[in-house]
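Incident review: delayed structure delivery

Summary: a single-chain prediction request sat in the queue longer than the usual turnaround. Root cause was a stuck worker, restarted by the on-call engineer. No data loss occurred. The affected request and its eventual output are reproduced below so the record is complete for anyone auditing the incident later.

Affected input:
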Amino acid sequence: RLGSYVNVYDTSGTLTGLLANTNYDVYVSPNCVVGVAGSMLLTFRTACGAIDSLPYFENFEGYPVGSNSIAPPDCGVPCYHRLDNASQYHFGYIGNPSSFPTGAHSGTGFLYYYMPTTAGTYADWIITVLPPVNTALHPVNTLQLSFWAKMNAASTSGDIVVGVMSDPLADSTFVPVDTVHVAGNVYSMKQAYLDRYAGAGAYIALRYTRDAGTATYYFVDDILLETIPACPVVSDI
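Output delivered after worker restart:
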């Protein structure tokens, strides 16, 4: 933030009041120099914090296009993680709008997944993990997760399991809570209620499983996390 500074009299100093998951430029100069001309520039991103305020919304805009060659847990979205059981070809990353002009529900950014029928170097399952929730302020079992999803073709479909994890790097901690069905190549909104969750995890996650019979492409956009309203929408008719 413009104007934040600290005088350093030894080998270290502390900048306070920084926001979580934010890029900062820091200039270091001797105190006899006015301004920042000729100063040393340090650039860094602060660590990720928990989701403190709701609703929380992510539309995946402004991030560079990802790649299946980048190994988990990196998915190209700050504070998100991706896990799978593949030796290579890791999916669940920011898709390329040039390759998929209709891949986004809004804007140009979206999450892209490819699940082939063959096992081995491709994953049998993929997990996308959201930033942690401050469960002291927002217990997970009071929340609902909404997102827009579609497949690549009108004839394909698949399920996305919404669950909660206590460790974003350990798939063994994934606890399934709700399942949504995705069908066709037109975006539709999906909602998952987390009121059945009874654990202590703080990481809400989406899990995709390989279909042995059909190759599937998932597109996900506009994730919204909020408190379950007093009068929820009708579901599971």
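Verification: The chain has a mean pLDDT of 90.
Action items: add queue-age alerting; document worker restart procedure.
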